[in-house]
Write a structure and sequence with these properties.
Blueprint (H helix, E strand, L loop, with lengths): L3 H9 L5 H13 L17 E2 L5 E5 L7 H4 L7 H12 L20 E5 L12 H17 L5 E5 L1 H10 L12 E3 L4 E5 L4 H4 L6 H15 L1
Parallel strand pairs: 2-3, 2-4, 4-6
Antiparallel strand pairs: 1-3, 5-6
Helix pairs in contact: 4-8
The chain binds iron/sulfur cluster.
Length: about 220
């Protein structure tokens, strides 16, 4: 029988995408000066959080010096800072920071994953890498049985989720929600530095998404 644990074991040893498998190991070896004293994770990342969660958050991919360094998604980078602060303010996390694996973070009623598990160069996975890796997301969708709301971060996560569900005609619009009968799908801009520093995603718009989620769940 498949479980999240054996899915995790398969993900962290996966080398299906040669370009990404090489890239994450190279980054882990070369590092950046500010993290020179870190032993980088340098492997693919599984999802994490509450296996009985009502909320599933789907991101794009780990960051080269964030998740690829710390060994946990949305951990040790600015996207993680935004996500965790919002989850904490909305009651889904016991703390508002996500810095390293043993930082005491406990997620409540939320599970976090991504469409691609290896950090891609320039945060841009190519089509075959998304196709390869979204098979793991498809397995997660089957294993996470209590999900009521799916929050997709960015257009690629939104389109990949719709494609896995074989749903056509949905349009990515920030904060739009779609009733898919079994779950409510909510789209949001990704809280990447590129969006938060340019003002494309403002804090009040971001936190409103989580208010909407709580309205559905509670
Ligand atoms: S991106 Fe996904 S499918 Fe590709 S090597 Fe990494 S874990 Fe495997």
């Amino acid at each position: 029988m498949y479980t999240l644990d054996n899915l995790t074991a398969r993900i962290i040893t996966c080398k299906k995408c040669p370009r990404l498998a090489k890239y994450i190991r190279t980054i882990a070896k070369e590092k950046v000066r500010r993290y020179n004293d870190w032993k980088y994770w340098g492997r693919p990342l599984p999802g994490f959080g509450d296996p009985y969660a009502n909320l599933l958050v789907i991101g794009l991919a780990p960051a080269a010096h964030g998740g690829n360094r710390t060994g946990r998604m949305f951990t040790g980078d600015s996207s993680g800072d935004w996500l965790m602060r919002a989850l904490h303010e909305s009651g889904f996390a016991n703390q508002y920071t996500s810095e390293k694996k043993d930082d005491g973070l406990i997620l409540k009623n939320v599970y976090i994953t991504a469409i691609v598990r290896c950090a891609p160069p320039k945060n841009k996975p190519v089509t075959y890498e998304i196709e390869n890796c979204s098979r793991y997301l498809a397995e997660e969708l089957k294993l996470l049985k209590n999900v009521k709301v799916v929050l997709t971060l960015g257009t690629l996560a939104f389109n990949t989720y719709a494609s896995l569900r074989k749903i056509k005609g949905l349009k990515f619009i920030h904060a739009a929600s779609y009733d898919l009968t079994d779950i409510i799908l909510i789209a949001s801009y990704h809280p990447s530095r590129q969006n938060t520093q340019t003002g494309r995603l403002k804090w009040n718009e971001w936190i409103d998404v989580f208010r909407k989620i709580n309205d559905v769940i509670n």
